Amino acid sequence: MAHGSMETLYRQVIMDHYKNPRNKGLADNSAYQQFHIKNPTCGDDITIQVHVENGNLKDIRHEGTGCSICCASASVMTTELKNDSLEVAKDKIELFFEMIKGHSVEPSELLGDAVVFEGVSKYPQRYKCATVAWQALKEVIGNG
Ligand code: ZN
Question: How far apart are CA 104 and CA 80, in angstroms?
Fold first, then answer.
């Protein structure tokens, strides 16, 4: 596939997750832990909620407002990391950060649809938008 059409495909995936977010809305359940995070440079305001059971991410939810990159990234993250073990999830978060910083990430299959944010590496002012939800997940599972 030519590079241009790849970028078009990526943009379509991002817009789809922005318009039809997966796993959106917080659960009213004390089994969940959550972390609230803000990106003041853009106004993104996101809460990530997780239900960890036997060392696995049984559920990941998100709620909040923000730009298309931020909201789509939160949605993609929940679909890609749900049901992962905490160890795998932590590895994926670090891989995602590396990819956003523009480092080539070899095991791209680990990231699934999250590769659609690869292009953000060309726009440093959007780094936080792409990573803010992942940072929140890192915080909430780091404690548990
Ligand atoms: Zn943003």
Answer: 19
